[in-house]
């Protein structure tokens, strides 16, 4: 399965709004909305965007590489406002090699790579629509490893725990 998806302009516009609202500075917990619940290693954070009628919630986990404290990721999973799609959004640090994209492995299975869609002052974003098979892998897996590249030869694997993902995903409104 490839993480790459066709451009979904409308969906990305909605997702960009959610990202802007949940906090473009996703490295600080206070900018991500109020913690609604904790599911294992995942937090559900919720907030109501300005002008929106409904609250938007997302599962969030912030992690750093085991061997590099200055290399971290924010992993965000949410349902779009229309509840028709589920998004996986990852904020990687500045300085990543953009053409290499972001790799993903769940347990020992290679899931694929996705390209970066934009960079902000605090990092670069990968965003994909989550298909059912990816959701199932993350629900039943133990760990996922996101791989970023600083050079074509140097991939940095950043593990995230999937402990609580299934429960948290099912609890997303």
| H and E string | HEEEEEEEEEHEEH
Question: What fraction of residues sit in β-strands?
Answer: over 45%
The CATH first-level class comes to Mainly Beta
Q: State the helix count.
A: 3
The major pleated sheet works out as:
7 strands, antiparallel
Number of strands: 11
Work out the helicity level.
10-25%
Molecular structure report:
The chain is globular. The protein has a single domain, classed as Invasion associated locus B (IalB) protein (Immunoglobulin-like). The strands form 2 sheets. It has a 7-stranded antiparallel beta sheet with strand order 1-2-3-4-5-9-8. The two termini are 27 Å apart. It has 3 helices and 11 strands, in the order H-E-E-E-E-E-E-E-E-E-H-E-E-H. Strand 8 and strand 9 form a beta hairpin. By secondary structure, it is an alpha+beta fold.
In short:
By secondary structure, this protein is an alpha+beta fold. The chain is built from 3 helices and 11 strands. It has a single domain, classed as Invasion associated locus B (IalB) protein (Immunoglobulin-like, Sandwich).
Tags for this model:
single chain; 173 residues; alpha+beta; Immunoglobulin-like; seven-stranded antiparallel beta sheet; four-stranded antiparallel beta sheet; 11 strands
